[in-house]
Amino acid sequence: MTAAAAALRVERLSVEFRTRSGLVRALDNVSFSVRKGETIALVGESGSGKSVTAYAIMGILDLAGRVTNGQVMFGEIDLLAASPKQLAAVRGRQISMIFQNPRTALNPIRPVGRQIADVFIRHAKVPAREASGQAIEMLRAVGITDPARRASAYPFELSGGMCQRVMIAIALAAKPSLLIADEPTTGLDVTTQAVIMDLIADLAAELGMATIFITHDLALASQRATRIAVMHAGHVVEDAPIADLFAQPRHPYTAELIAATPDSAASLDELAAIPGSLPDLRRSDLPPCRYSERCPRKTEHCAQPLPQTAVGAEHIVACWNPLPVYAPLKRAIGAS
Amino acid sequence: MMILIIKRVMMAIPSLIGVVVVTFLLTRLLPGDPAVYFAGPAATPQAIQEVRVKLGLDKPLIQQFGSYVFDLAHGNLGTSLTTGQPVITELRTRLPASAELTLLGLLVSIAIAVPLGILAATRPNSLLDHTCRIISTAGVSLPVFFTGLILIYVFYYLLGWAPAPLGRLDVFYVAPPQFTGFYLIDSLIGGDPQAFIAALKQLVLPALTLGAFSLAPIARMTRASMLAVLSSDFIRTARASGLSNWTVVITYAFRNAMLPVITTLGMVFSFLLGANVLVEKVFAWPGIGSYAVEALLASDFAPVQGFVLTMAAMYVALNLMIDILYGLIDPRVRLEA
Amino acid sequence: MTDTTAASPRESQVASLLRHSRHVLAENPVTGFAFALFLLIVLAAVFGPQIAPYDPLASNTAQALKPPNAQHWFGTDQLGRDVFSRVIVATRLDFFIAVASVALVFLMGGFAGVAAGFFGGWTDRIVGRIADTIMAFPLFVLAMGIVAALGNNVQNIVLATAIVNFPLYARIARAEANVRREAGFVEAARLSGNADWRILVSQILPNVFPILVVQMSLTMGYAILNAAGLSFIGLGVRPPTPEWGIMVAEGAAFMVAGQWWNAFFPGAALMIAVFCFNLLGDGLRDIVDPRRRT
């Protein structure tokens, strides 16, 4: 993918955490990219490193976390090496993020209108009065009725769905070109989930904004994204357009995921169909392929560092022994 | 809002009742005959009997309590044996001295402890952080009267920077005309900058002593509270929105972290009001604490009872104000009221 | 790292506690230091009068107000008494006051709190009322009032300190008792026919004790400061009895005039003792309940 078309390019990102019980190698050479205006999904079990990737991109890693390798190219700038001044121009303005559990993700003692206005004041450099007016407009844009009155409400007075809309308003206030949505619908009821996802999609289309969806819900990802990057234990194991991923999964883990996901949308964590479990990332003797210890297709080749094998147009798999192309077709869920 | 205030006031009333009952009981718990104590060590049996009748100590307990409450309602706290003055008058005259000292001490304490706690939380494991933790642990071990004496020794005796610890003003100065009783404020209102400086000089050491005493719990609570808040979800959102460091740490984090600190202030006041007595003794400060201590040594009980009652009533009022302040800041409390 | 898997059935609770303690001490040398200091204080308290080089009450006006020197390590006071001996001997009294206060408040507060949590209803309400009333006073002021009312002696200092700390102990004990009661221990014991008081003593009190022990160490520091403060203003201990607070009071006037050793050494002893108890309390907390570390 050319630099011009990419909104964001993550290249060989590695992150470590220092904890009481040891050094956690949370991410190892994670690479993927997003085109301008494209919607991709980052999918994996909890503990696979999806959120850590997002935090590293945004530069909001925990103090115990350290980037040990890699680049995050946003246009011409490497976000990991950028100066605080450059980052200030990007974070919240050109790249925004929304989180799960919207109620706790908002300041409990500050009216929501002011929280949105804070973003306008900071990034659009407008005075406070104008900012509150714009905040009300944002509330309207995210579909909150009676926005003028709601602007002075506190998060605890609003429902989960409304709080998530507020968070979207905060994130989109500065009209970013990239939105990272970390499990935005977890904790919301099913109807609200659909509504919120529609809202994000509509606004993204309106703004020409690229989106990275982080989710453990493969079905949800397939409905909203055009490409999926599958993560396992800090690695991206497969990266493909949806149709290809479901029609021809090449990585054994991807195939297991698809097989384990029934037709109705269900979270991966509930299904115990995948044999084995995530390796302990504190081990210093982790094999180069972190899936190899539970993989039925393991060969002695798998002791070598992971490849990035292109197996199709924009279809990459990190495996020495990928599934053959004529693998039986698993149920394709919602693939168009 | 008003509902909140009224509710809080209602909750303070049982405490006030308890205070009145306990201070009443304290005088009746005196070993031996209370009348002897109130009459004084030099009283004849006849004088003692007079006092007994005058104070109603021969009546049944319930009736005594009734007249006690009646007296209180009329501002009658008895008369001091040693000075012959009504207790209430002396307390009223001396209260500003104690209040000025305590408030200044608290101000000093907050001015140091809160920024220290914030900085310690935003720079974990730095030298500042370790300093804050040492101060918090060591600070609660210091006897307040000892700190005062050390400060006097270093700054008055060794360095000569501070004036002699002889009270609110050096003998050469005249007290400013009375508006509030606070020398600092009155001297400014009266347009007498010399008096202001003189009063301030006398205030520095005792206020620092009190401040050092309350520094530890405030710094500890601020640091702990900030640490907790800084790792919360909404701070992560604020950072991801690209808000400035000041906005994140102060406008977002600190305002939330302040809430437990305000609650801690109640406990801090309890310590401060007690430490006040000791500091007044060390610095010969003419406040209500030294009034009570002098009365104690002379076995003069009415002032002591009046002192305990006043201090307790002030403490209840202070706690009430803290509760209301908390409710004003935290909308979750305000809106649920 | 030492594992915390279940000990073999043979290993008693005490042995496993010792093992855990040793682990915590190894990780946290400051606590070990506090323990060592504590032992030193206990030794001074027990053997003080024997090891003091001079009679703490013997005055010698010819030697009055001498600064620290070879014969008198801490100097002499205004009556020529050796400050070092007085400080060492005073350990016993201050330590005794601290221990007695803490023991008393543990019994009073512990029992009242456990009863309140266990029985609920009126017991709970009354204990709560008493605790609230005590807490409506600034604590030192209340202690002053109690000692003034009951009489100016050491027993009343102990009693006043215990009363003033009562609410805290009652609250902790009540919370623990509540937890046990709701956890079904009580139901089970009752069903097997045990009398209420027996359940209280055998089930609840032993579980409440460790948590209170942490608080007790911290209270010991507070009790010493409280007693010293009261003595400083002339309540409780009377001269010539050596007690740290009173020694600071007597030395205060001299300190202002430059003779610092009179008040400094007893004050420093106070500081060290209280500091030790606070560190000990923190260390004990780590042993008893590591989740509550700050």
Which secondary structure elements does this structure contain, and how are they paired or packed?
The complex is a heterotrimer of chains A (336), B (337) and C (294).
Chain A: E1 6-19, E2 22-35, E3 39-43, H1 50-58, E4 65-74, E5 77-78, H2 84-90, E6 95-98, H3 112-124, H4 128-141, H5 147-150, H6 160-172, E7 178-182, H7 190-207, E8 210-215, H8 218-224, E9 227-232, E10 235-241, H9 242-247, H10 252-260, E11 309-312, E12 315-317
Parallel strand pairs in A: 3-8, 3-9, 6-7, 7-8
Antiparallel strand pairs in A: 1-2, 1-4, 4-5, 9-10, 10-12, 11-12
Helix pairs in contact in A: 3-4, 3-6, 4-6, 6-7
Chain B: H1 2-28, H2 34-39, H3 45-54, H4 61-73, H5 87-122, H6 127-139, H7 144-158, H8 183-189, H9 193-230, H10 233-240, H11 245-282, H12 288-297, H13 301-329, H14 331-336
Chain C: H1 13-27, H2 29-51, H3 83-119, H4 121-135, H5 139-150, H6 154-182, H7 185-191, H8 196-232, H9 244-256, H10 261-288
Helix pairs in contact in C: 1-2, 2-3, 2-10, 3-4, 3-6, 3-8, 4-6, 5-6, 6-8, 8-9, 8-10, 9-10
Low-confidence stretches of chain C: 1-7
Number of strands of chain B: 0
Large-scale geometry of chain C: globular
**Overall SS class of chain C:** mainly alpha
Number of helices of chain C: 10
Which structural class fits the helix and strand makeup of chain B? mainly alpha
Oligomeric state, counting identical vs distinct chains: heterotrimer
Computed over alpha carbons, the radius of gyration of chain C is: 22 Å
Q: Kindly state the percentage of residues in helix of chain C.
A: over 70%
The CATH top-level class label of chain C: Mainly Alpha
**Which range does the strand content of chain B fall in?**
under 5%
Main sheet: strands, sense, barrel of chain C: none
Order of helices and strands of chain C: HHHHHHHHHH
Distance between the termini of chain C: 21 Å
How would you describe this structure to a colleague?
The complex is a heterotrimer of chains A (336), B (337) and C (294). Chain A is of the alpha/beta class and 336 residues long. Chain A is built from 10 helices and 12 strands. Chain A has helices at 50-58, 84-90, 112-124, 128-141, 147-150, 160-172, 190-207, 218-224, 242-247, 252-260, and strands spanning 6-19, 22-35, 39-43, 65-74, 77-78, 95-98, 178-182, 210-215, 227-232, 235-241, 309-312, 315-317. In chain A, the strands form 2 sheets. Chain A has an 8-stranded mixed beta sheet with strand order 6-7-8-3-9-10-12-11, sandwiched between helices. Chain B has 337 residues and is mainly α. Chain B is globular. Chain C is mainly alpha-helical and 294 residues long. Chain C has a single domain (16-177, 215-292), classed as MetI-like fold (Orthogonal Bundle). Chain C has 10 helices and no strands. Chain C has helices at residues 13-27, 29-51, 83-119, 121-135, 139-150, 154-182, 185-191, 196-232, 244-256, 261-288. Chain C is globular and about 75 Å long. In chain C, 48% of the residues are buried. Chains B and C meet through helix 1, helix 7, helix 11, helix 12 and helix 13 of B and helix 4, helix 5, helix 8, helix 9 and helix 10 of C.
